Amino acid sequence: MTDSLAPIDPRLQALLDKQAITELVYAYCNAADRHDNEKMRSLYHEDAIDEHGQFFEGNAMAFIDTLPAIQENMLILHHNVTTLNIVLDGDRAEGEVYILAFHQVQGENGPMDVLIGGRYFDKYEKRDGVWKYSHRAVVADWVKVDEPSTVNLEHPMIEGSRIGKPKQVDPSYDFFEIFQWGKGPQAYKS
């Protein structure tokens, strides 16, 4: 029988911390894509900073308060994490997260597609045993714009498929039982 108070091997603790941060990053993508701003709020510390280009720079909670207006014209959001570089320093960590983010935006002349290749520069802190964002900055490395949109959700290849939607009308909210999307601040944790 092992002593439950025995210290964890530092290498194992590093893996656990990196996994928790990775899940935080993935939860952010889900919250952004589903326009689930309650979930988004649960991912940041109250005093966190968010730098989101032209949209916002300042307190992350204030940024999240502006999201309904920002998201109003975004018909589709689809964030994909490709590379995570995470370095730990006790209860602090930093991450360079590579992303591909697709946006379909309703413009004056109809929908347009914006595909951004970029990165998040992140700072995380573990407080009360939970990793959250303390600072996030968006970096754009390239962008591709198609106006008008080339997305076709009525193509015969996807006939009969569930179609992703913003907010809790997305089919994932009804399909999953274990994920608990949108069920409070710790819903993203495994």
Automatic annotation (TrEMBL):
Residues 13-136 form the SnoaL-like domain. It holds the Pfam family SnoaL_4. InterPro entries: NTF2-like_dom_sf, SnoaL-like. This is Nuclear transport factor 2 family protein. It comes from Parahaliea aestuarii. The lineage of its organism: Bacteria, Pseudomonadati, Pseudomonadota, Gammaproteobacteria, Cellvibrionales.
